[in-house]
Amino acid sequence: MPAPQPPAQADDYTLQAPDPRVAADAAEVPAQGGGPGSAVCVACRAGRVDDDGYCENCGHAQPRERDHMEQECGPLAAVSDRGLRHHRNEDAFAVGTTTLPDGAPVSVAVVCDGVSSATRPDEASLAASRAANASLLDALPRGTHPQQAMHEAILAASEAVNALADEQPAEAREHAPQQNAPACTIVGAVVTAGLLVVGWVGDSRAYWIPVDRSAPPARLTEDDSWAAQMVAAGLMGEAEAYADHRAHAITGWLGADAYELEPHTAAFKPDRPGVVVVCTDGLWNYAESADEMAEAVPADAAARPLHAARVLVGHALDGGGHDNVTVALVPFPAVPQGAGSA
Predict the structure, then answer these.
(1) What is the C-alpha separation between 332 and 75, in angstroms, rounded?
(2) 299 vs 211, 303, 311, CA distance in Å?
(3) Which of 33, 43, 156, 317 has CA 20 to 30 A from 55's CA?
(4) Are 188 and 146 in contact (CB under 8 A)?
């Protein structure tokens, strides 16, 4: 989550992370970026990088593993990038596939956004995404309904983030009371035969984009944010609310200092093939409405999800890359059995 950034210091040199728009296609690329073994420093473009990951010429550290991550898993894919302004990537994702008891395939994608004003937001997002993904991949093959499985997965993610707060020594908490407990948002999607389930807490989002664009795209989640509350209460229009400097103040998150946890879940039965876009606000800030997101999603996204995810990250970087950017794309091969909310 974005937070006010202090003026850049001498040791906060912003490195250019690898550009996903020109990355080579690969079946699975866990991480991209400079580091030990890189031939040339990404900062000065001249010095050699030593085994510790620092340039021998200018001394700058090279991009870390999480600065740019990609993964393709069966029919779905995800990409996460540090962006152009943040000094580290506080987003995380987890994707996976499994089968239901009847053998039907199911795809799972979880995206988390660390709250920058909290301590260790990068650890929070990583712990939450892994816990939710593991919970879903365990529950679905046992026959748990996907919507119930999503609810349980969000609770598992919450427990994982809460556990991080317990790891901080009591003495440290006493001497640094201004530090908030680790926190993050979460959004996830489960796609199986004829059914799409989403779950979330915070302002990370999921969108539905029909493959042939023959029906309107849709945003499937409602933000836990100041702006969304203003709109829901009828106090401000959507454009006015999201233009306000308080717009992205979240009202729901995972973390030990969160208010009462209220996982949101929803189930849908689309009547045509499509793609589910699961993302942090680092992307949707540059494609906020469903129509804008549909315009940014390549027409072949369902067939080339990794390429499409790279294109979407590139869209955010082209727009300014002010935040970390993470997106997962999950194709939905619809069963023609009517549309609507389940």
Answers:
(1) 9
(2) 7, 9, 11
(3) 317
(4) no
C-alpha to C-alpha distances, 250 to 231, 237, 284, nearest whole angstrom: 14, 18, 15
Sequence length of the chain is 342
Coil, helix or strand at residue 113: strand
pLDDT tens figures, 173-211: 555 544 689 999 999 999 998 999 999 999 999 999 999
Calculate ∠ Cα 314-320-323, nearest 5°.
Answer: 85
pTM tops 0.85? no
pLDDT tens-digit readout, 210-236: 999 989 999 999 999 998 999 889 999
Q: Half-sphere exposure of residue 249, counting CA atoms within 13 Å on the CB side?
A: 10
Supply 306's token pair.
Answer: 């990794």
Question: What are 64-93's pLDDT values in tens digits?
Answer: 889 999 999 999 999 999 999 998 999 999
Contact present, 21 and 298 (Cβ < 8 Å)? no
Cα distances (angstroms) measured from residue 203 to each of 61, 183, 222, 250, 272: 32, 13, 7, 7, 27
